[in-house]
Design brief:
The protein is globular, with a radius of gyration of 17 Å. It is 16% helix and 28% strand. By secondary structure, it is an alpha+beta fold. It has helices spanning 30-33, 95-106, 155-169; strands at 8-10, 21-25, 38-42, 46-50, 55-61, 72-76, 83-88, 116-121, 136-139, 173-177, 183-187. The strands form three sheets. The protein has a six-stranded antiparallel sheet with strand order 6-7-5-4-8-9. A three-stranded antiparallel sheet has the order 3-10-11. It has three helices and eleven strands; from the N terminus they run E-E-H-E-E-E-E-E-H-E-E-H-E-E.
Length: 198
């Protein structure tokens, strides 16, 4: 899975060093602002993938660092220099929790796992912002389509929609899905703190 672009650009010369987005649309995400694509809920856990035979964990490797054994490179982020790719789940820091999720869901009657990406969520994953009672795997292909009371695509529209979804629904952000497979994202924490609901 390639790194999903954020729909607004960041200013890395600002005091926040690019932590927050600007009002300027990301040209690679023009389709979002043209009203194309469907917004879905962005899950807040860690990304894993099943390729039909093996499970993988998403991994970023900082510039100058050695990738882990078995690492499969997907792309290099031109802005940060980080290499994004996959490592075998068994050597990931999330291996134990992933095994618990697979065992739990196999016990609920799931037979076989479709090829694709999943979000690993649960009590021991990134502070459990999704408030999952046990470790689980949520298919990205089945992510909830968001009905957020309007589909305006300006900076102010999107900011209001994302912040409202975060405040009232605990949603981390949106992932826009284009019919041709392209994706773009925005998170509540991408906006200046004064704009994020308490």
């Amino acid at each position: 899975m390639k790194k999903i672009p954020t729909i607004f650009l960041r200013d890395f010369a600002a005091p926040s060093n690019g932590r927050y987005v600007t009002r300027e649309p990301n040209p690679s995400c023009d389709w979002v602002f043209a009203g194309e694509g469907v917004p879905t809920r962005k899950y807040d856990g860690t990304c894993v993938m099943f390729d039909g035979e093996q499970w993988w964990a998403r991994r970023e490797v900082k510039p100058g660092k050695q990738p882990p054994a078995g690492f499969v490179e997907v792309q290099v982020d031109d802005t940060t220099g980080k290499t994004v790719g996959w490592e075998p789940i068994d050597q990931s820091a999330f291996a134990k929790f992933h095994a618990e999720a697979v065992a739990y869901q196999n016990g609920t009657g799931i037979s076989g796992w479709p090829v694709g990406t999943y979000e690993l969520v649960g009590p021991k994953v990134n502070g459990n912002p999704e408030r999952a009672e046990r470790h689980q795997l949520w298919a990205h292909s089945a992510a909830e389509v968001l009905d957020h009371g309007g589909d305006g695509r300006t900076f102010d529209d999107i900011r209001a929609q994302v912040l409202a979804a975060a405040k009232f629904g605990g949603v981390e952000g949106f992932v826009y899905h284009h019919p041709d497979g392209r994706m773009a994202k925005i998170k509540a924490r991408d906006f200046e703190p004064a704009e994020v609901p308490a």
